[in-house]
Design goal:
- The chain contains 6 helices and 10 strands; from the N terminus they run βββαββαβαααβαβββ.
- It is α/β, with parallel strands linked by helices and 233 residues long.
- It has 2 domains: 1-82 and 159-226, Rossmann fold (3-Layer(aba) Sandwich); 89-157, no CATH class.
- Strand 1 and strand 2 form a beta hairpin.
- Helix 3 (98-107) crosses helix 4 (113-126) and helix 3 (98-107) runs parallel beside helix 5.
């Protein structure tokens, strides 16, 4: 049984002449410990796919199942716990330092401040962002923002990690490190579903293509030859 399953999912925005079909009859399975990367151009529906997969938005048609049970009505239970959705935005009300932002999401799950700090520091270290703990979010570069977003999700020990375009805006020299981090998390058993608009984002993953809301089980032709990541010396 797959950890995540989308069954003939469709999602639309707007009405009448302004209606836009973001997802069209999409079916997808992601197993525990699997890294799946969905490539698509701008407005292809890739971000919508992740939001629907995590329960952030409900599909108009079809069904989303997590661990064999329908996600509908359970998104509050799953999202932020078993399902980690990586947010790259920060709200001032959540604290001043990065460590505060990684801790705050744990309070809703009844975790004490002392334990939340221990878990937050461990998650930041696992994501390679331990040096960011005392900084303000506005002081982070693009690479650090992504790593902190991953750490914020990891602090709750999710079984599925959803990451929307983890390398967008990231310096070329730092992109491989983020992708290698996601690969290592998958090898440790965390399922990872990510979107990407770049060919390098498909390296080491089961690569799919989303075009005009339709999901295809192979990379687009122009992405057939994917350059492998440069592993650290």
């Amino acid at each position: 049984m797959s950890l995540l399953e989308l069954r003939r999912v469709s999602k639309r925005y707007g009405r009448g002449m302004r209606e836009r079909v973001a997802l069209k009859n999409v079916s997808l399975q992601v197993d525990a410990g699997e890294l799946v990367s969905v490539w698509g151009r701008r407005r292809s529906g890739r971000s919508t796919l992740l939001r629907v997969a995590g329960g952030v938005e409900a599909p108009d048609e079809g069904m989303v199942c997590f661990d064999g049970r329908e996600l509908s009505g359970r998104c509050g239970e799953m999202l932020g716990h078993s399902i980690g959705y990586c947010r790259t935005t920060f709200q001032a009300s959540e604290g001043e330092a990065v460590l505060d932002h990684v801790m705050v999401g744990q309070y809703a799950h009844g975790i004490s401040p002392s334990l939340a700090e221990v878990r937050a520091r461990a998650a930041l270290e696992r994501a390679g962002a331990q040096r960011c703990a005392a900084r303000r979010p506005g002081e982070l570069d693009c690479d650090e923002i992504v790593r902190v977003a991953i750490a914020r999700a990891l602090a709750l020990d999710p079984r599925l990690l959803l990451v929307d375009e983890p390398t967008i805006g990231v310096d070329l020299l730092a992109r491989d490190g983020i992708l290698l981090l996601l690969q290592s998390l998958a090898r440790e058993g965390t399922a990872v579903l990510m979107s990407t608009g770049e060919a390098t984002g498909l390296s080491g993953a089961r690569a799919l293509t989303l075009s005009d809301g339709e999901l295809h089980g192979a990379p687009a032709r122009e992405l057939a030859a994917v350059v492998p990541l440069r592993r650290p010396a």
